[in-house]
Amino acid sequence: MGGTLAENEHTAHQAELLASELFSEFFWSKLGPTNHDWPCEDKERHQVATHPCDVVYYYDEPYAARQTYVHCDLKSYAKGTITAAAVKAAVESLAKQVACAERSEEWRKLHTHDNVTFSVSGLLFVYNHDGEYEADFQKNLMHIAPESLQLPRGSKLFVLGPKEIFWLDNIRADIQQMRGKSNPEVPAPEFCFFFHPQLMRRANLQVKKAKAATLETLTSPIIILEHRDPRRSHQRGVIVFYSRPGDTVDEFMYLIDTMRKYELLDENTSVKVKTLGASPISSPTFQKAQLQYIEGLTGAGVDTDLGEYVKAIRYEPMRETRSVYSNIDLGTWS
Predict the structure, then answer these.
(1) Helix and strand tally (H, E) in the chain?
(2) Quick one: how far is CA 138 from the chain centroid?
(3) What is the mean pLDDT of residues 250-275?
């Protein structure tokens, strides 16, 4: 694992395992070797001879005819080692890696397909392996000036902290739990894909091909999994994973209206909204939001098709799970 903080081999391996399990559920694919160094293309400015690479994933972009390659720095830290200085150093190092990746023939040879148009993004993945970090991780990023990172034009850098990783890992676990039931709520992966809406000024160009959740999707408060019934292809299901507290009616009415704008509400679609660690009153609050939204369409007592679709939306808080790895087991079986 590249970085400046001490991570023993098996602790570092925890982040690699979790990332592999997590991103495969979001339809990311790996390409090329893991945990290797490659020559720096700007030694004078970067002051290093080589850069580290933990792993590179790729996926098809929905809004452009290209692939995104995600150059990852995977960290596995205990609560006490997650500091603003450590995060800043990791972000600055990753920005240099991304800048060089775009210019490096060796990096391209190892991690990209031939004859494809692509862009490179960086992902700093900070997993808290003792599960005790409860501070606001985003505050560690407040004093990093984006212009100081000297990223190439068009390149992006994303950071997933402990809270975001916990949320995404719970989505992974929930999908697998729904898929594993004796009467599965979600079909096999080949019938599933993450939803990317048609936007006013950005068309989804690759509805069938771009199945993966993009970096932008994973860092948004709404992640939507769409699945098709293997026996009746015109029937679809939609799982809306929503990361906000769910403690106000207005918040849920906005969510319902977003689903309408995304054209997810119709007679052939079953919709379920899922939250994690939401307000204790989120279920009755969602019911109130459904009723108020329906009344707002035409007034009370007037039935409409859209009103029926809104009424049919199901709401369900998720059961919390936490992936835990044992260094003893990793050391025994690796």
Answers:
(1) 10, 12
(2) 16
(3) 97
Judge if pTM exceeds 0.85: yes
The Cα angle at residue 16 between residues 33 and 332, in degrees rounded to 5: 105
241: its two tokens:
């994973």
- Residue 20, CA atoms < 13 Å, CB-side half-sphere: 10
Q: Strand pairing partners for 120?
A: 69
Per-residue model confidence (pLDDT) at position 259: 97
Cα–Cα distance between 217 and 214 in angstroms, integer?
Answer: 5
On whether the CB atoms of residues 288 and 256 are closer than 8 A, the answer is no
Taking the C-alpha atoms of residue 42 and residue 19, their distance in angstroms, rounded to an integer, is 29
Question: What was the pLDDT predicted at 334?
Answer: 56
Element (H, E) at 68: strand 67-77
Alpha carbon distance 309, 72 (integer Å): 41
Residue with tokens 């603003």: 84
What amino acid occupies position 132? E
